[in-house]
Amino acid sequence: MASLVEGSLLARYCPGISFGPGKMPYGLRPWSVGPLPVLTREEVPEVAYLESPHKGLPEFVTINARMAVCPEAKALIEELEPGRHQFFAVTIERPRSRKPILTRSGEPLQTPYYLLRFGVCLDAVWVERSDLMVSQISPGKTLVFPNPGNYGGTVLRRSATAGHHVWKGDRQCPTNLFFSDALTKEVQKRNWKGLDFTHLREE
Fold first, then answer.
1. Is 134:142 a contact under the CB 8 Å cutoff?
2. Which of 33, 53, 178, 193 is such that its CA lies 20 to 30 A from the CA of 103?
3. How far apart are CA 190 and CA 73, in angstroms?
4. What global pTM score does this model have?
5. pLDDT digits (tens, 9 = 90+) for 9-25
């Protein structure tokens, strides 16, 4: 099995973090179809700001609506998929206060988070066996999206996902992120927060 991954719906795990006005890198545009361009350090700001009143951060957060992970999650992903993805260190600060930002264990945050730039796009959906929405964007170009009322109705081809642990959709589910079963189990076993998972069938 694999999982469709989204940010948590629980407010306590949804801190508001932003790079600030005009600081969103072009390479982190809301979504794209086709290969994702490689980013350079100069394209990714090194500091982001915790704008919400949260005392601390979960292990997975979003910065300008893009996933960032704690150092431990970065290490796990790199262990499973060495060299496939880009990670950019981002220091998270309060914009108008010196009050410490805490980890979930209650300790002051002393390490950066890492903006995760996904290096793999897959069209792994078994369209004929899935409950999907279809969008015709131009002649000959069709996108498919999970049905909001039935995300679990998306079926993946096991032959396409084999050997992958983190990927984004391409023309199939271009706005969605997926984790392998192995990665999902590790995240849940370690009780890391900030993500919600919808388990999908693979055939």
1. yes
2. 178
3. 10
4. 0.90
5. 999 999 999 998 877 66
Q: Where are the beta strands (DSSP E) in the chain?
A: 2-7, 17-18, 47-50, 60-63, 66-69, 86-93, 113-117, 121-122, 132-138, 141-146, 155-156, 166-169, 177-180, 195-202
| CA distance linking residue 65 with residue 82, whole number of Å | 24
Q: Tell whether the model's pLDDT for residue 29 goes beyond 50.
A: no
Q: How close are the terminal C-alpha atoms of the chain, in Å?
A: 9
Residue 43: Cβ within 10 Å count: 14
At 10, is the secondary structure helix, strand, or coil?
A: coil
Neighbours of 61 (CB within 10 A): 28
Helix (H, G, I), strand (E, B) or coil at 161: helix
Residue 184 banded pLDDT, cuts 50, 70, 90: very high
| CA-to-CA dists, residue 154 to 149, 163, 171, 187, 201, angstroms | 11, 19, 14, 22, 7
The token duo for 192 is 């890391």
Q: What distance in Å separates the CA atoms of residue 29 and residue 59, rounded to the nearest whole number?
A: 23
Q: How far is the C-alpha of 56 from the C-alpha of 104, rounded, in Å? A: 6
pLDDT digits (tens, 9 = 90+) for 62-112: 998 899 999 999 999 999 999 999 999 999 999 998 899 999 999 999 999
Q: Percentage of the chain surpassing pLDDT 90?
A: 71
